[in-house]
Amino acid sequence: MKIKKEEKMQIEKLPTLKLKYTLVVPFMGIVDALTMGSFFMNPAADGKLLIKAFYVTCGIAGILFALWGLLWKTTIDGKTIKVNPVIGKKKVVPFSDLKKAVVYKKKKTGSIVSYELIDKNNQSIVTIYPLMKDSSTLMERLKRLKYPVEEA
Questions:
Q1: What sign has the CA pseudo-torsion 143, 88, 35, 23?
Q2: What phi and psi, each to the nearest 5 degrees, are found at residue 77?
Q3: CA neighbours within 13 Å on the CB side: how many for 142?
Q4: Which pTM does this prediction carry?
Q5: Beta strand pairing status for 73-76 and 98-105?
Q6: How many angstroms separate the CA atoms of 68 and 80, rounded?
Q7: 91-101 pLDDT tens trace
Q8: Engineered SS bond to 12: which of 4, 26, 78, 111, CB 3.0-4.6 Å?
Q9: 11-52: pLDDT as tens digits
Q10: CA-CA distance, 124 to 104, in Å (whole number)?
Q11: What 8-state DSSP symbol labels residue 87?
Q12: Distance between CA 138 and CA 85 in Å, rounded?
């Protein structure tokens, strides 16, 4: 019986992770916009300009929230971390620049609020929320690859 020598996992061989918001986020934005449209059309709001302006503003915010949820994306393969935010500049950071991950939790319940990936210059690369697809897969992968995961 031969004992196999345990090989160190190679980052390059891992499948690509595409982190993006689940469809709940755009759905909430669409529901918000439709609800505000319904309130806007309500006869009780007729003649009340400020209330109608408030409904229009909230409806636009709902549409923007839906677009933000659909367009925000981070791709992590074995070589790079590509961050494509809706607002702001796109970033491509080599995976070798990743220094650690910081986990933020609620003090009372201990539930996870967000993860933050930090580069070797102690700059934040990206903040990842549990509401995103594959966020837990990324954290497990970082732990297996022996990257430090700190709690803040």
A1: negative
A2: -115, -170
A3: 25
A4: 0.73
A5: unpaired
A6: 23
A7: 999 888 889 99
A8: 78
A9: 666 788 888 888 888 999 999 999 999 999 999 888 899 999
A10: 13
A11: S
A12: 18
